[in-house]
Specification:
Helix content: 25-40%
Structural class: alpha/beta
Shape: globular
CATH topology of the largest domain: Rossmann fold
Largest sheet: 7 strands, antiparallel
Low-confidence stretches: 80-92
CATH class of the largest domain: Alpha Beta
Oligomer: single chain
Number of strands: 27
Distance between the termini: 72 Å
Strand content: 25-35%
CATH architecture of the largest domain: 3-Layer(aba) Sandwich
């Protein structure tokens, strides 16, 4: 809602022009639960007279039903819109509100204080320029205060307003305020947060929110609104090197070809030289087109279409940059990540990484450490759980163009996406590219996979047997190998138990170790296929992601997923090694089918019903499938 003005009635065009020319400030309110974040935003809107009469009437009625202020109006209800939020008196989702004053326009994000909603707080902070961190004067700095402050620093927010709230409940005691400010500044210095303005206030009564109060006559600083209206958030984006991720190749007809996107940093004008990454092709700007006509210059934040003087190959996801200060390129880098999903991050599992408009496949190759947000200590870990922060190394299937996050928030940030559910599971900030040896290349050999397979009178492939323990995977695979040997075929059988005596003897049975177990076996299987062999890999391999990873290491048609589909109760009846009995008794942890999940294949090439057919019949079914496809 816009600030009330007489121009609305007298000269609406002039009023709209003044609104257009105001600069926009994005800020968040954060801190621990019940520190008064929603009430503070409600107070700003209420005192600015930015609430419609019907809104005020609705909030007044709701305050009597679900409010927390007795017969008084509960201003937090202006922001807390979810039914659960009103019933519990808390913020769950991120609530965005727009308002303006005569000096500035604002978009404020009210972020939740509970630990389980930390991911929501990070979402709100990702585009903010200022963080208003609230602290209850009665409770001081809490765990979630530290957590939110750490994320604020991690996401590159440089300006912090320390709002010591509920000062009316401690009689605006100066010593209390100064002690909290001193403690917070000491903690914030460890995070690199130096631009901090502290203010004592009461969101409930409005003291020092919209205007200064006599209740704290010892405080001579500005009110919260005065700080928000005057704080200098001028960034270096305009003077930073030019960057524009290409979001769309604009080709409305044969005579026009432009590249559309939002300028992430820097300025650009006709005649400037640019380089396109990752191709590193160079050209110069011919025109800068917009809906309202061509521009003489464009700056960070503007959405434009750039027309070049040369016809070079550019696609969605490419990054256009300053030719003299071009972005870096890498397929491996170190980064901070915040995990945002109930299912933990597993190293070596494949995720989709979206950086700007470009999407690549990414795996965490090394989890270097987790970060304790309270003590800032680095601790060892094998996985990353919901709302945890970690420092990791990534490897990508394609090189990306980027800038370190500390230099450019727009081209150094990314999100991680689950490949099956398409859910956003994490966000990250690139620290630096990993410098790998540049003298390594792929040495081409005269003898290749095709000639090796032809020598053996077969087509190389991997038969990947998956199923529960006791389903009969290894028994069937063994029978198939014997039949193939009798036919003169060249094979190798990789068995889940056998490889753990050597290659994978250092791995346990946690989800993270299971992923690494399958990754190593998939690499070995790919090497045997390259040798022209028919490989039989028999592993529980419980996760679809890792079976997909194994498939993608081979060429199309070289991977056959063989699902030995045996009901759990049948596997337990067989229980050849007595493992289910021990798992049921709690003697074996992380046992697939009991206390660890198994994700059955969705579209396996071959499905074997081992509860319905004998071993020889199942083996013949697989051989018949191979013959039909021309592999033997």
């Amino acid at each position: 809602m816009a600030h009330q003005s007489d121009l609305i009635e007298t000269d609406i065009l002039k009023y709209l022009k003044t609104q257009e020319e105001k600069d926009l400030l994005r800020f968040i309110t954060c801190g621990s639960v019940d520190d008064g974040k929603s009430t503070l935003i409600g107070r700003l809107l209420y005192d600015s007279k930015l609430i419609f009469e019907d809104q005020l009437e609705a909030i007044t009625a709701d305050s009597k039903k679900v409010g927390t202020q007795g017969d008084d109006i509960d201003l937090a209800l202006l922001v807390d819109g979810l039914q659960a939020e009103r019933e519990q008196g808390i913020t769950i989702d991120v609530a965005y509100r727009f308002f303006s004053t005569e000096k500035r326009k604002f978009i404020v994000a009210d972020t939740p204080g509970h630990e389980q909603y930390t991911r929501n707080m990070a979402t709100g902070a990702s585009t903010a320029e200022v963080a208003v961190i609230l602290i209850d004067a009665r409770r001081g700095i809490l765990t979630q205060t530290r957590r939110h402050s750490f994320i604020v620093s991690l996401l590159g927010i440089k300006h912090v307003i320390l709002a010591v709230n509920k000062m009316d409940l401690v009689d605006f005691d100066q010593a209390t305020f100064e002690q909290i400010e001193q403690d917070y500044r000491a903690f914030a210095a460890e995070l690199g947060l130096n631009d901090i303005q502290a203010i004592p206030l009461s969101a409930l009564t409005g003291d020092n929110v919209f205007s200064r109060t006599d209740a704290a006559d010892w405080y001579s600083g500005p009110s919260l609104l005065e700080i928000l209206e005057t704080i200098d958030v001028t960034t270096d984006l305009a003077s930073a090197p030019f960057r524009m991720p290409v979001q769309w190749v604009n080709r409305p007809n044969l005579d026009f070809r432009g590249f559309s996107g939002t300028i992430a940093s820097g300025t650009i004008k006709p005649g400037d030289n640019v380089m396109v990454s990752p191709s590193e092709k160079a050209s110069s700007i011919k025109t800068i087109s917009t809906f309202d006509g061509d521009l003489g210059v464009a700056v960070a934040g503007q959405s434009v279409t750039l027309v070049l003087n040369d016809e070079i190959d550019i696609s969605r996801g490419d990054l256009m940059g300053d030719i003299e200060n071009s972005p870096q390129q890498t397929d491996q880098f170190a980064a901070h990540i915040l995990w945002m999903h109930e299912e933990e991050l597993l190293p070596e599992r494949q995720y989709l990484m979206k950086i700007g408009p470009k999407t690549v496949v990414a795996v965490v190759t090394e989890l270097k450490h987790e970060i304790n947000v309270n003590s800032l200590e680095h601790t060892a870990a094998k996985t990353v759980k919901l709302n945890e922060v970690a420092y990791v190394n990534f490897s990508l299937d394609h090189a990306i163009a980027y800038d370190p996050y500390k230099e450019n928030r727009e081209t150094g940030a990314f999100i991680l996406i689950d490949r099956f559910s398409n859910a956003t599971v994490g966000c990250g900030m690139i620290d630096f590219g990993l410098r790998r040896a540049t003298n390594l290349g792929w040495h081409e050999m005269d003898v290749g996979k095709a000639s090796r397979a032809k020598q053996k009178n077969q087509k190389a492939c991997t038969l990947w047997f998956t199923g529960l323990s006791g389903s009969g995977k290894s028994t069937v695979a063994n029978a198939i190998e014997k039949k193939l040997q009798a036919m003169g075929r060249h094979t190798y059988l990789l068995d889940g138990d056998n490889v753990r005596h050597g290659l994978n003897r250092d791995l346990g049975f946690t989800d993270a170790d299971r992923v690494e177990n399958v990754r190593r076996v998939a690499e070995v299987s790919a090497l045997f296929v390259d040798a022209g062999m028919i490989v039989l890999s028999s592993f529980i391999s419980p996760f679809r992601d890792e079976r997909r990873m194994a498939r993608e290491m081979l060429e199309d048609g070289e991977f056959f997923e063989v699902f030995v589909d045996t009901p759990l109760e049948v596997c337990e009846q067989r229980d050849p090694k007595g493992l289910y009995v021990k798992a049921r008794a709690g003697e074996i942890k992380n046992f697939t089918g009991i206390d660890s999940d198994y994700e059955p294949p969705i579209n396996a090439e071959i499905v074997l019903k081992s509860a319905e057919y004998g071993v020889e019949e199942l083996a013949d079914q697989v051989l018949a499938s191979l013959k039909e496809r021309g592999y033997i």
